[in-house]
Specification:
about 160 residues, alpha+beta, seven-stranded mixed beta sheet, three-stranded antiparallel beta sheet, 3 helices, 10 strands, binds zinc ion
C-alpha cells in the first residue's frame, strides 16, 4: 500500500494528493484516449472526487468534444497539462497516471477498448482485457464496489 501518492503538472503550479488507494486503474486503448493523449493509450486512476486533494493551484475545466458529447477535462491554467477528467458521475475522478510523481506506483487493473489497440502494443496475460468496456460488478474488488456505492449515495443526498 502506498496511499498518499502525489502528482502535478509540468510547471508546478498545480499539485494534488490521492488520499487513498485507487478504486481501480484503467488502461484505455480507445480512439478518443489516443486522440486526447497523442499516444497509444491513457492510464486512468479512478478515485473518489473527495479523495483527490488539491494541494496547490486551481485546475481549469475544459469541455472537450467526445463524439456528440463533451468530456470534462481539468488542466493546469498555465502549462495546460491535463490532470484528470470526468466521464459519468462527478463523484469519481479519472486521474491521469502520467501526472503522478511516481507513475510506476500504479499499474492497470484492466485493459479496455482493445479493439482499437495499436497493433504493436502487447498486453500482459495476467491483466484482464476487453474489446470494449467491462462489468464493474464482476471485476472490481468488493472493497472498491463498497466505496463506489458510498460515493454515489453521498452524491444522491446532495
Ligand atoms: Zn502547470
Ligand atoms: Zn478511452
Amino acid at each position: 500500500m502506498s496511499a498518499g501518492r502525489e502528482g502535478g503538472c509540468a510547471c508546478g503550479e498545480l499539485r494534488y494528493r490521492l488520499s487513498s488507494e485507487p478504486l481501480f486503474v484503467h488502461c484505455c486503448h480507445c480512439l478518443n484516449c489516443q486522440l486526447q493523449t497523442g499516444s497509444a493509450f491513457v492510464i486512468n486512476v479512478l478515485i473518489e472526487t473527495d479523495r483527490l486533494e488539491l494541494l496547490a493551484g486551481e485546475p481549469e475545466l475544459v469541455p472537450v468534444p467526445r463524439g456528440t458529447k463533451k468530456q470534462k477535462i481539468w488542466r493546469c491554467p498555465t502549462c495546460r497539462i491535463a490532470l484528470y477528467s470526468q466521464y459519468t458521475t462527478p463523484r469519481v475522478r479519472f486521474v491521469r497516471a502520467g501526472t503522478l510523481d511516481d507513475p510506476a506506483s500504479v499499474a492497470p487493473d484492466v485493459h479496455i477498448y482493445t479493439r482499437s489497440k495499436l497493433p504493436w502494443v502487447e498486453l500482459p496475460e495476467s491483466v484482464p482485457a476487453f474489446s470494449t468496456y467491462y462489468d464493474t460488478q464482476k471485476l472490481w474488488p468488493a472493497a472498491s464496489l463498497e466505496r463506489l456505492e458510498a460515493a454515489l449515495s453521498a452524491g444522491r443526498r446532495t
